[in-house]
Write a structure and sequence with these properties.
37% of the residues lie in helices and 24% in strands. By secondary structure, it is α+β, with helices and mostly antiparallel strands. The longest helix has 15 residues, at 97-111.
């Protein structure tokens, strides 16, 4: 059995993060959707601290990642973590890398005095069963909203002219 480890990503991992993000997008059927490059991940993750990332390795070889950032519950007055992406290479599925990554996120939240781990999963994503198996639950009554593209630009322009 492979020796599985999870470690925090560092600036030297920016290229690896970019590669894993591209693999994840290809797995999801959207290989052309990724616009981020290694330089973007290096800047955002390590110069600006906009996100953190964990790397799972099997026998020293990268097999997956969890990219996350801090969020905050105004009602609880405590921080949590938002899991933006979790991906394990197909060749490493079944080794427990995904579970180890999520467990490490839970440990991180607890150490920081936080209260929850949030994530969004597409309805058709088979990973939903994985998350449910770990005990995560779908939050009923909540819907994801997003402003991007022309809507985001229009709102920003409105703020500039106010």
């Amino acid at each position: 059995m492979a020796k599985l480890t999870v470690r925090p990503a560092g600036p030297d991992d920016a290229g690896l993060i970019a590669a894993l993000v591209r693999e994840h997008a290809a797995y999801e059927g959207a290989p052309d959707a990724v616009r981020g490059a290694a330089e973007d991940y290096a800047r955002a993750g390590f110069a600006e601290a906009a996100f953190e990332c964990l790397i799972a390795e099997a026998d020293g070889e990268p097999v997956g990642f969890a990219l996350f950032f801090t969020n905050f519950s105004t009602w609880e007055g405590r921080q949590g973590l938002f899991l933006e992406d979790l991906f394990v290479r197909e060749t490493a599925r079944g080794l427990g890398a995904g579970r180890r990554l999520v467990a490490e996120l839970a440990r991180t939240i607890r150490e920081r005095g936080g209260t929850r781990l949030d994530l969004v999963v597409m309805e058709e994503n088979v990973a939903r069963r994985f998350y449910e198996h770990l005990g995560l639950r779908q939050v009923q009554g909540w819907l994801l909203y997003r402003a991007d593209g022309a809507t985001l630009e229009g709102l920003a322009a409105e703020a500039e002219t106010s």
